[in-house]
Amino acid sequence: MQITIRGHHLSITPAIEQAIRSKFAEMTKHLDQVNSMQVKLTKDHQIDKRSKKGSSNHIAEAIIRLPGTELFAQACADDMYSSIKKLSEKLKRQLDKHRKMQLVYTPLVA
């Protein structure tokens, strides 16, 4: 599986890259049909006028390409590592749902 990681207004450090690769490697180890995966990390620089701080300004998005379908998820948090964790949880739920749908619709060969 090929994982492409991009940063927008953010430099991708080796620690962030390792966190992404470890989260998604364990999530997709039981699903061998994943073609590719794109992860986009963004830091939004908007500041809340009342608190003078940015709230939930670390955004993580991912697209997983499977044969015949694509899965997309987005997560926001105050910290990049927590947004990556939220993103992996959302994608894990989608992959589980996709896996169950495949089991239901797989024709039985006698």
Automatic annotation (TrEMBL):
Biological process terms in GO annotation: negative regulation of translational elongation
InterPro entries reported for this sequence: HPF/YfiA_ribosome-assoc (IPR050574), RHF-like (IPR036567), RHF/RaiA (IPR003489)
Gene Ontology cellular-component terms listed: cytosolic small ribosomal subunit
Coiled-coil residues: none
Any one GO MF annotation of this record: ribosomal small subunit binding
Domain of life: Bacteria
Listed SUPFAM superfamilies: Ribosome binding protein Y (YfiA homologue)
Keyword field contains Magnesium: no
Keyword vocabulary terms for this entry: Translation regulation
Family that this chain belongs to: Belongs to the HPF/YfiA ribosome-associated protein family. Short HPF subfamily.
Self-association and partners: Associates exclusively with 100S ribosomes, which are dimers of 70S ribosomes.
Matches recorded under NCBIfam families: yfiA
UniProt protein name: Ribosome hibernation promoting factor
Organism: Acinetobacter tianfuensis
Gene expressing this chain: raiA
